[in-house]
Structure formats: C-alpha cells, structure tokens
Design brief:
Distance between the termini: 93 Å
Structural class: mainly beta
Number of helices: 3
Largest sheet: 5 strands, antiparallel
Helix content: under 10%
Radius of gyration: 39 Å
Number of strands: 61
Strand content: over 45%
Amino acid sequence: MILPQTLFINPVFPILPWKIPCIFPVKVTYKKSTKKKAKTYTKNLTSKITVKNPTIKVTSDSEIAIGTTTQVKATVKPSTAKVTYTTSDEKIATVDATSGVVTGVATGDVTITATAKNGKKTVKAEKKISVKKAILKSATQTEYNKIDVVILGDTKGMKASDFKITNNSTHATVVVKAVQPKKNTADTYTLETYTGMTDAKEYTLEFAGASTTFTVTDGTVAYVGLSTQEIAAGTATEVKMTTLDKDNVVLSYTSLDNSDSSKGKTTADVKLTKGYQDGTKLFLPAVGDTAEVKVTYHTGTFGTDGKESGNIEKTFPVKAVDPSLIDLTYQVSIGKSAPAWTAESFKANTNVKLSYANETPNTRNAFFYIKNTDTNKEIDATNYSDYSVESADKSKLLVTETNLTNHSNPVLVKGVSEGSTYIIIKKADKVVASLPVSVVAKSVATSLDLDKTSVTIAQGASVAEAVKLTLKDQYSDKMDIDNIDVTLLGKPSKSTALSNAKVGDKVTSEFAISGETASVSGSAFGFAVSATNVDTQANINNRGTYTFKVSAKNNLSNKTLDRTFVVNVVKNTNAVKAYSLKFNQTNVDTTVGVDALSPSDLNNKKIVVDVAKMENGGAIDLYAAGTDDSNVEYTVKNAKGDVLVKVGKDLATTDVKTSGAVDVNIINNQLEIAPITAATGAVSGKSYYNKNLDAGTYTVTAKFTLNKSTEKKEVVTCRFFHC
C-alpha cells in the first residue's frame, strides 16, 4: 500500500497495447520522505483494463398501415454508443436514420436494421415490420345498424362493398349499406348495415385483409331519447324518439306522432307555448322558443289496478336556435337528369359547358342537395323552398333566380364565358353558401372507342357480330352518335362480297346500324355449304380478312371520328365442331356517375349470354335444345370461386341459386345478368340502386347434355366478363 504522503516522481507509462482487454503495467518511482536526499524506491504496478462490446435490443410495432408511422426504439449499452437505422426496402417503408421513425409506403414486409457503434466495435439488431393497406384498430356499435370503425392507412376509394361483417355464431353475413367519415373524428368511419344487429353476439369485421371483432347490443331498452334537442328557428324540423340500451346504443327510431302504446312501442307527449307540431315535425318560430317532449317506452307491464307501470320515460327540452348554427352541407351538380346523390360512386359535376348556337336546349340543368352535416341526413323536402339561388357573376354564368323545390327539380343555368364563378344560395335573403362552378368550353368529340376490334363470321350464318361504339368529348363525357358510316378498306383480292364493293366504297347498307352499334352477319359474305350445296369459287373467294373503317359523327360539334376493325370470314358447313359462350358485352361499368340511370341505361348494362355452335372459329347458330338434348345449366362464379348463380330450365327449384343479391333471368337457353338494378321500395324522389355485382372478374360456365338417350355427350364451356 502506498501511503498518502508518498511522493511519486517520474511515473513511466508504456505504449498502450493493441488488444483489449489487457494487463496495463505502470512503473512508479517514489520517495518516502520529502527530504532532498531521501532514498528513492521503484515499484511496478499493474491494472487490468477491459472495454466491453456494445449491445443492442430493438422494439416496435410489428404492423403498420400505409401512411402511418411507428418508432423503432433501440436500447444500447453503453448508452453513449451511436445508433443509426436503415430499411431493407424504401418502396415499402422508409426510416429516419437518426430517430428510427418508420413510415409505411406500400403493402409488404420490410426489415429495419438498427446499428450501434462504440469505438471500433459495431453490433446490429433487426425488426421485421409488415405494412398493410389498412389496419382496423377498433369497431364499436353506436346504433342497431351502425358501427363506428377506426381505420388507419389507405382509405382512398373505400366503399361499402369493401367491408364484410360476419356473425361468429351463425356465420351469417351482414351486408354493409354505406360508409361515411365521422365528423370531427380522425380516422373514424361510420358503417351502416341493411339489417340490425341486436343478438348480443360477437361479430367479425373485415376490410383490406385486416379484421377486428366487436360485440353487439342485446336489444334491451334501458333509456329513451330524442334524435335532436336543437332545431332551426322558423323551420319545420323532423324530430324522432329513440330507445337506447345500457351502453347508449340506439335501438330504434320512432316518429313523433306515433300513437301505438302497445308493448315495445314508444309514444310522445309534446307541450308547446309557441309554434306547433306537424306530424313528425316541430316548428318553433323564434330563437329561444322551446318545447317539452315527454318520451315513454311501454314495457307492457300493468299493476293490479289495471294501470300501466314500469314504463321507461323522460322529458326533454327542444330549443329553437339560430339557423346559421345548424351545420348544413350544400352541393350542386350539373347534369341532364337528377343526380343519384346517395350512390357510393356518385361524383358531383361542377362544369357548365358553353352551348352551341343550334343546341336545343341551349341551357344546362343544375341540381342542389342540402343535408345536415351532423346527422348526414338530407333536410326535409318541404324546407327546400326556404332557399333561393342566383349567379355571383352574370358575365360568366346565368342562373334562373328561383326558390328550390327539392333535390331532383332542375334550375336552368347557361354559361356565358369561360372561367370560375359561384352559384349563391340564400335563405331569408342572407347568403348561406357559395358553390364553386366552372364555365368550360363547348363539347367537342375527341375520342371514339370500340368494344372490340376484330370478329370472326361464318359464311351464311345468321348469327350477327356487333361492334359497339362510344364517342366522348374532351371532358371524357359521353356524346350522342348521330350518324354511323362504314367504309371498306381492305378485302381478299378476288372477293365479290358486299355487293362487289371496291376498296374505298361505303358499305354501311351491308351493316345493321342500331343506336351505337354496327353489326354484320355471315350472309353478306356467301352461303353455308352442305352436301347438296356445292362450294362455288365465288363463295371460296369471299373468305378471308376484311378491314373496315367505322365513322361516328356528332352533329352538334360537327366532328367525325374514325376507327378500324377487322372481320374474318370462315367456311361454314353447318358441322358443329365446338361450343362457345357468346356475350353481348364483356366489360360493364356499373358506376353511377353524375346523372341518375334511366331504365334504358340499366338495360344497356345487362350482360346477355348465349351458347353458340362453332365451326372454324365462327358462330354458325345458337344452341337450342333438341328433343333428346338437355337445356343449358349456367353457373356464375366470382374470382374467389364462390358460386353466385346457378340457373337452368331443367334445374329443380331447390337447386337454383341466385345468392339473393344477383339479378338473373333465364329465357329459353339465354342467360341475362343485371349487374346493377333500380332499388325497390326507394323513397319517392330519390334514386337508389342495387349493385348486384362488385367490380371484378367473373366466370360463366354453361353445361348441357347432347343425345341423352344414346351416347349422352356432356358439353361444358366457360368464358369471363368484367364489371
């Protein structure tokens, strides 16, 4: 031991070794006295020095959604070690090199690596993270047919059919009717279902590959309430009674004028000092006016005296407030007919196209829709007349100054000059909304599309092949086709078909022109050959490839556009070599756009399927069951392989399947599918639709039997169509 008073002089430190840990020797010279001539002593001391390797551990969420973040947290020893972060794929997720914050970019799996460095020592730790399109954080029932869902991630283009709700006990599916963002609540959406859920069971909600569970109400009434306790002064407003369970889940809505006091029913006693009750509505004339509404839920319990007891009741005040405090949403849409405001795919059109001098009518239709932002419900139709509309700038847009009637009656507008302007909505001569619109250039035909560019036709066959034309303007809006012409561009060198037409001749008369389609049958190119009908040289010369130019004209813009298509003509001996499905169209757009769909529009979206008898790639006839043949059995499956439709004239009623949602019809041996139909029982004045088939690819399979009593040959053929 070296005493404190010891004087150290000239300590010698050797060169540090290269390897750690090591023994560190130190040579020390010292004196035991401070006297000048004191004896000097020397001693060697050693010390063991160890530098530990750094260690690292990382933690974070294992899943994130596109557009959301999580932080990879690194725990390192020693704490002074520097940590950096990297990602295995920046296309899936990025990471901040310093903070470790990870952001989801696209679906997939990614590895985040944390690297710690201390001196010359480096260690790494990895965390695998899965990036999902969306993550369902929670689902909570708020009403008997409504669920609030918290969704993180990519919700762009989200629609009701993207969700699936399943009862975990019965495995029954509850169809989602609508999805709406919840006001003032981030990442929260309200799902509305067609049917209620009041069986106290657990349900599973699925969306974009994610799922969560929730338990629904048991339907037992614990409280009563009102749909609103504030109404706009001077406006007759619908107020409904509600029943709620112990968790305040709304179980029912009942009109204020209901008088049925039997068990399970709700009635109201309304007291007014000013204003009046008009059926289901309350009217309070001025701000501050009030009404009292006593709501009673009848349990059906009676005492020994015969009087009702055990009812659930409560009295609520209803107050009139300044109408400007009622949060309303105003919309305008320009179109030919009343918009389908409530359709999921509806998008308002705010472009007013300038009209041509010879255009009839030379005005456009503007439609208006007003709804309560809080309840997401449209105002009562009788309240529309409280609002008037006018133009903000008559040098750009003329608007018929009038009071509104409802959301389906048009207001005439006319563009004057191109530019942006507003349509002003007023109530009691006070501006309540300014809706932006744009006056744009006149429509000009700019594109012509064909549903197919080539067809194959059997000589002499009566089965026509049609080409459907679609003409659009510069705004991608469909335009009327006022005239269709067909010109011959190429043919076999010796062909005398089409009345011996020459290249460059118009052959429109050889085609059947109907609306937006041009069709031609095999009879225009020769005749079918049989044993008693010798194949002539002229008939042979007419086979081959024909090229046509089809021209579509829009008279209004005086513009004609051209496209080419090819017809392949093949030999027909009336010998069936195969069977194939023949569709009237294989791509159907079920989107409800700006305008409501007319019966004609809905009919044009139908898919008609026939079984065709084929020879040399051309249809020679349509299948019709002979006396010893079976009728066709059709099956329609979705991309997952689920059977949606199974129909046929020979099928027993118990074997027919239409899934309840797919509208199908079987006429003789022709299948007719309606992907979208008008909803029955819809509210008057509103357009509702049943989207029977979601967007996707579907397979149609036809099965039938030939010569049932002899060789019994079963034929199966299938083909795809897209919605």
